[in-house]
Amino acid sequence: MTAVLGTALPTAKDVRDLLTGLLGRDVTVAPGAPVTPTPSRPAAAAVYVDPTSSLTAVCLVDLPLAAWCAGALALLPKGGLEDAVEEGELSDMHLEVLHEVVNVAAALLNAGGVTHSKLDRLIAPGEVLPADVAVLTGSTNRLDLAVTVAGYGPGALSVVLA
After folding, report:
1. Which of the chain's ends, N or C, has fewer CB atoms near its CB within 10 Å?
2. pLDDT digits over 51-95, tens only?
3. Could you give the CA distance from residue 43 to residue 61 in angstroms, rounded to a whole number?
4. Is the pTM here over 0.85, yes or no?
5. Per residue in 17-46, pLDDT tens?
6. Strands, DSSP E only, in 38-162?
7. Contact 33, 159 (CB under 8 A)
8. Contacts of 124 (CB under 8 A, 6+ apart)
9. What is the rounded distance in angstroms from the CA atom of residue 94 to the CA atom of residue 73?
10. Which residues contact 80 (CB under 8 A, 6 or more apart)?
């Protein structure tokens, strides 16, 4: 019998490869600063859980990268996305597309015989994080990346394990 392992952090290459394939354009990644949602720096939070609904990980995507990912997947013009970033809020349509991105990103947490994680919910930039998610955003068990989506721009992403 093989033991099931806990969720493991993806590598930067895993993130780049997933986003490049999903968005259909070049994506570059480099070590970055932690994404910590604040009123002045809103971020989307994708919450992942195991089959028992226990929190396994959070993927934090700052507002610009959230907009660029939505735009690249839905082939939206950059100008409207820049307006959304400047206003500090994504539209329902942007969030719906971002939901697809972070849902596919669950694959980053499910490599190599680990306990399966699935997307539980996406918390929009600017929304209050539940206490368990807010506490987790301060964990040091994380991968922090500066990400640039070709044709759109730079942003930041953090994957934090519970």
Report:
1. N
2. 999 999 999 999 999 999 999 999 999 999 999 999 999 999 999
3. 5
4. yes
5. 999 999 999 999 999 999 999 989 999 999
6. 43-49, 55-62, 118-123, 142-149, 153-161
7. no
8. 44, 90, 95
9. 10
10. 71
